[in-house]
Amino acid sequence: MTDWSTIEALPRRTLLELFGDDADRLAKLSLDVSGIHFDWSKTHLTPQAVDAFAALAKAQNLAGKREALFGGEAVNVTEGRAVEHTAERGEGNPDSVARARASHGRMRTLIDAIEAEALGPVRHILHVGIGGSALGPNLLVDALGREEKRYDVAIVSNVDGTALEDVFDRFDPAATLLVVASKTFTTTETMMNASSVLAWMTEHGVDDPYGRVIALTAAPEKAVEWGVDETRILPFAESVGGRYSLWSTIGFPAAIALGWDAFSELLEGAAEMDRHFRLAALHENAPALAAFADLYYTQARGAETRAAFAYDERLRLLPSYLQQLEMDSNGKGVTVDGRPVGRPTAPITWGGVGTDAQHAVFQLLHQGTHLVPVEFIAVIEPYDTLAEDHHRALLLNAFAQGAALMKGKHADDPARSYGGDRPSSTLLLDTLDARTLGALIAFYEHRVFVNGVLLGINSFDQFGVELGKEMAKAAEQGGGDFDLSTADLIKRAGLD
User: CB-based contacts of 390: which residues, under 8 Å, 6+ apart?
Assistant: First the structure.
């Protein structure tokens, strides 16, 4: 039986030594799944390390917990809930899959009605939500809606009124559909923004603003109480967590803006990755191998962060999406049975867009004192129609940065010397379409799950976000037991 001490004691060789020792290294540490090429050869994973992680996965019953996840069992143990985002794309408990299909059918019917102008003329979709209710839809629309988007879509999450006013300046209130996305339909920021949108509509002469509201929620009764007609409520299952919810009716802005065919392809791409994750052996399982690399660096090498760089403008929101997915899920300090973990859990996820990031943060990656595993995400097929040297330069920069991080360069002048032996992985997509993007996002979801299982933590609760919200609510009501510094800040801002 392997434990963490076995992994921490794995032999340490440089990346160049690892390539020199094994002519088949690239073949052993790369995969092609769902239109994505995965390359972990420039990480310090070895077949020995993969075997050690596979043994740890067996000891932690990864296979059993994976089946429990897909079977609709209560894997979110602290809240006693199943975790059924995979059912939204057709993989999971049959009853849950059937309910998800019915929910999607209801959404498609409503979209057909909107397109037929049953709610009046609609040119603009104003979606208000926060967290997973905004990050996922925003990623989808931004990545896939740059050419044939059928409606102007704005997704607003920030309670800062400037965010809404920016949209008000661009949208016609008489042609705007308000979409309110909240799992509980009580989220403070979302409901405040929604009320402000209704006020804007009313001020500009919209006769029945509530008649132009769509609600996306797991609490339809709350939406009815708020004033939404039940025919315009698109429910989703309580067992679908917020940061995993873009596959459900939370994906409404993508489904209406991109078209139903694109949304269906998104679901099928994710389902294809689900099947791969469920059936492939661990040594050729993309989410598992990615998690093994993550854990090697956090547990054996002390890496505190992980950087993701999208070398495609259409994926510019991916690092922000991954921040929530990874840090909300695995930023935990106790195990599933409530004991201190006693070791690092999720690294801090950060990143940006290449080639911009090369001129902003790569200095630290190449010559700084922090060990930062880097992930490059790129797409072979260009989207732009400019001269091909644009896309060629983009891809060559991505590949060269990984090579430079690994190889380094010695110079007599220490300031011009690169130590090398810095790890990176590459995800190279054949093309960026709905199907491949679905597979990519599902890959990241399952990677998070494997990380959580091997660490013995619950990836599906998020109690850490509650305390600050409770204190803000107390302050809003004129109460709260605040320290001297916070009380002074409230007073200085004129909020007391």
Answer: 382, 384
For residue 175, the SS3 value is helix
Contact predicate 61/442, CB 8 Å:
no
Residue 70, C-beta contacts closer than 8 angstroms, at least 6 positions apart: 86, 91, 92, 93, 274, 278
CB 84 within 8 A of CB 96: yes
Q: Where do the H-state alpha helices sit in 116-238? A: 132-144, 161-168, 188-203, 220-226
CB 155 within 8 A of CB 181: no
Could you report the per-residue pLDDT of 192-248, keeping only the tens digit for each? 999 999 999 999 999 999 999 999 999 999 999 999 999 999 999 999 999 999 999
In a 3-state reduction of DSSP, which class is residue 462?
coil
DSSP letter (8 states) at residue 32: E
CA distance 474 to 191: 17
* Cα distances (angstroms) measured from residue 329 to each of 332, 361, 444: 8, 26, 12
pLDDT digits (tens, 9 = 90+) for 458-482: 999 999 888 888 898 888 888 888 9
CA dihedral 448, 454, 458, 460 (to 10 degrees): 20
* Residues 6 or more apart whose Cβ sits within 8 Å of residue 401: 354, 358, 362, 374, 376, 424
CA end-to-end span of the chain: 59
CA distance 325 to 349: 9
Is 133 within 8 Å of 183 (Cβ atoms)? Answer: yes
Strand order across the 30-33 sheet: 30-33, 36-39, 424-429, 374-379, 305-311, 348-353
Residues in contact with 295: Cβ distance below 8 Å, sequence separation at least 6, in sequence order: 7, 53, 451, 454, 455
| C-alpha closest to that of 349 among 312, 379, 309 | 309
CB atoms under 10 Å from CB of 365, counted, come to: 21
The answer to whether the bond into 14 is cis (omega within 30° of 0) is: no
Burial grade of 278 (CB within 10 A; 0-12, 13-18, 19 or more): middle
Buried b (16+ CB within 10 A) or exposed e, 122-155: bebbbbbbbbbbbbbbbbbbbbbbeeebebbbbb
Is the pLDDT at 424 greater than 70? The verdict is yes
Token duo for residue 265: 């392809």
The DSSP call for residue 37 is E
Q: What are 430's two structure tokens? A: 């054949």
Three-class SS of residue 99? helix
* Separation between Cα atoms, residue 27 and residue 290, nearest integer Å: 15
- d(Cα 23, Cα 20) in Å, to the nearest integer? 7
